[in-house]
Amino acid sequence: MARAAVSRRLTWRAATLQEVRAETGSAHTLVFEVPGWAGHLPGQHVDVRLTAEDGYSTERSYSIASAFSDRDDLVELTVQRIPDGEVSPYLVDVLQPGMRVELRGPVGGWFVWRPADTAPVLLVAGGSGVVPLMAMIRARAEAAVRVPFRLVYSTRTPEDVLYADELRRRALEDRGLDVTVVYTRRVPDGHGRPPGRLTAADLAEWGWPPDFEPSVFVCGPTGFVEAAADLLTDAGHEPQRIKTERFGGTDA
Amino acid sequence: MLDYVDGSSLAGPMRELFAVDVTAVEGRCAGCGLAGPLANLRVYGHDHGPGVVGRCPGCDEVILRLVRTPTDAWLDLRGAVSLRFSM
User: Regarding beta strands A177-183 and A149-155, do their DSSP bridges make them parallel or antiparallel, or are they unpaired?
Assistant: First the structure.
């Protein structure tokens, strides 16, 4: 139909789960195959819709974890199980390779990093807020650009670190990428910094100074994002250069 | 207090209506005059009910409401003076 051909509205499409990777005890990365996937920017998200046999349906938004590659039609989502959640326990515990869900996306044009951007980048993650920031780190490597990146990642314990092995590897191999993990409850053996919330001193030591005019991306739970954004503006970062993405206290 | 999420969560529902992403569009609040991307709105009702309400992060006034029925989408932009689209 000609009308359908010119319509640029977004619609739901089928996605087949191809592979599952356990990231932590409560988070899995789900690799979906989406035929004809036209690409996405790091920081964009997709909506996932589940429909029960009785027709009841519900949807949630998830950040895309993977960088787009034109070599395949894969989209990776990292989903943290929220025990009382409606959607995440199904995605983490029930969905098996070969099963399908509906996806709508990619969407969101605000909280995105573009490989053509030349400003240094500071990524500040709280918990599973690291997911879209990981997509940016992966997209930087995929595009083979040398824009300096720093990730400051706040999480509870060493067991809660998402992408731990990959972050360790990239910190060594991806030139111009620095990774710092800040633990709020318990630190690994031999770690110098005592456990505690992200502070101004952490951001001063591991982030970029405001004079470098970095692009700053902050993602995490609402309270974390507001606290981190305040620390950054107090340190002299221009609010216009700080992009934030919150996920509420609800089933994410 | 009710939980809210970012205006970024409007991206999917709005892309069913508009050909461009509107979360990066700059809106100006009719209540306090604050201008910023719709991604920065505080969105309520995302986890229940028939629609969502987007409020200004500066003054908490309602900027927009989006309600879906089985056949239609209703978009009420009562609290926005303007939307500025980058061309």
Answer: parallel
